[in-house]
Amino acid sequence: MRLLALTDSQMDAVLRAAAPLDVDQRGAFLEAIAAELRQHREIGDGTIDRAIRRTQGRFSKPPDLSRSRDTSR
């Protein structure tokens, strides 16, 4: 497995993208990002952004609005 060399700002972007996910999904998300990035010879900021956007959709869950309480009076 090839090690990835990310700048501090690139790693920060990946970690910020993982932050809103359920804790039990973050590891799998980070592994999926790493797998996506390993497909590229060179990794720039745009590569990171595209990998995050492609991967995030598989892990993020929309809020369940049907379970929210009706606060209207």
Key descriptive features of the protein:
mainly alpha
Helices and strands, with pairings:
Blueprint lengths: L7 H11 L4 H15 L7 H15 L14
Helix pairs in contact: 1-3, 2-3
How many helical stretches? 3
Main sheet properties: none
Shape from CA axes? elongated
Which spans of ≥5 residues are poorly predicted at pLDDT below 50?
A: none
Let me know the number of strands: 0
Total number of distinct structural domains: 1
Provide the β-strand percentage band.
Answer: under 5%
Would you kindly provide a written description of the structure presented here, covering whatever features stand out?
The chain contains 3 helices and no strands. It is mainly alpha-helical and 73 residues long. The chain has one domain. α2 (23-37) crosses α3 (45-59).
Compact description:
This protein is mostly helical and 73 residues long. It has three helices and no strands. It has one domain.
